[in-house]
Prior knowledge:
The protein has a domain at 4-76. Helix content is 44%, strand content 0%. Helix 2 crosses helix 3. By secondary structure, the chain is an all-alpha fold. The longest helix is centred in the first third of the chain and has 17 residues, at 21-37.
Amino acid sequence: MITQEILAAKILDCLNGQLSLAELVHWAEDAIVEFTESDERPPNANTVWDVLLYLGAGDSPDFPLTWEVIRDTLERLGRPVQRVAAWRALAPHPLKRERRLKSPSPRRWRGGFRG
């Protein structure tokens, strides 16, 4: 049975780079078939169904999976999110020579203040 928690986890996997958009769409298409063939219905079945249909069509231009759509979808699934930028150091390009900045020579403070 496909639940809100499973849907949210799949979307978050896609956002975190653990699942490609094509893989998410393919999973949603398979989940639609599973949902229609199952007699069991999860709580909030209408929400699950709506999200599955949108994700299943996510590779078409009429149903873009933009940040706003994904954020709203996760909120509907009870998983509000916010965008957080993470900084990571990138390795220098292997074909470029690394330039080293010359450090300025230390200057002595000669005392006094100017106002």
